[in-house]
User: Which sequence fits this backbone?
């Protein structure tokens, strides 16, 4: 939630990303049956950038980023609650792995709050805490169905409240571009 502390600080957001060993989650939780995405678009989708390196797992770098943030240390971070949907307190293994890694790698305590699935999906905008676990499946195989739908200003699915004027201009140009290859390059 970009509007909530501590994730309104981009250094904290980046630190939490660096503290996740995505390769380990793919190997152990998913038994290697998924591909690790380096960016916002999944591998195989038109417009996916195969040259994008993504964020590397780097605990030391993550701790350095938190030290450089407005909080100065993990101990100074406010309470962090992660909202998810589900039933009976059972959370997905990949989410459990992420929370475990934040605790082990950063020393950050993350409490999971589970809402009934329909309540979660229909009221996430009002119910979300500092973090939330939200999946997305494309309605059609095009980068617009991820980038504009999930991160565009005013989109009801932009639950993270992301905004960037440069991003808006770029996805607007890509959407108006009549040549498919040029459009996909803009989305890349």
Assistant:
């Amino acid at each position: 939630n970009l509007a909530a502390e501590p994730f309104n600080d981009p250094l904290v957001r980046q630190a939490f990303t660096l503290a996740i060993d995505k390769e380990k989650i793919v190997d152990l939780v998913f038994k290697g049956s998924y591909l690790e995405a380096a960016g916002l678009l999944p591998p195989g989708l038109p417009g996916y950038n195969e040259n994008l390196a993504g964020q590397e797992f780097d605990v030391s770098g993550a701790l350095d980023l938190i030290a450089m943030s407005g909080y100065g240390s993990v101990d100074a971070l406010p309470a962090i609650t992660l909202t998810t949907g589900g039933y009976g307190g059972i959370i997905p293994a990949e989410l459990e792995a992420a929370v475990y890694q934040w605790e082990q790698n950063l020393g950050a305590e993350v409490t999971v709050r589970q809402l009934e699935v329909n309540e979660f999906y229909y009221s996430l905008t009002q119910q979300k805490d500092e973090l939330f676990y939200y999946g997305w499946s494309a309605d059609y195989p095009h980068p617009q169905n991820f980038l504009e739908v999930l991160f565009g200003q005013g989109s009801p699915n932009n639950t993270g409240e992301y905004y960037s004027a440069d991003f808006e201009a770029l996805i607007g140009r890509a959407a108006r571009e009549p040549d498919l290859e040029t459009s996909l390059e803009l989305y890349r």
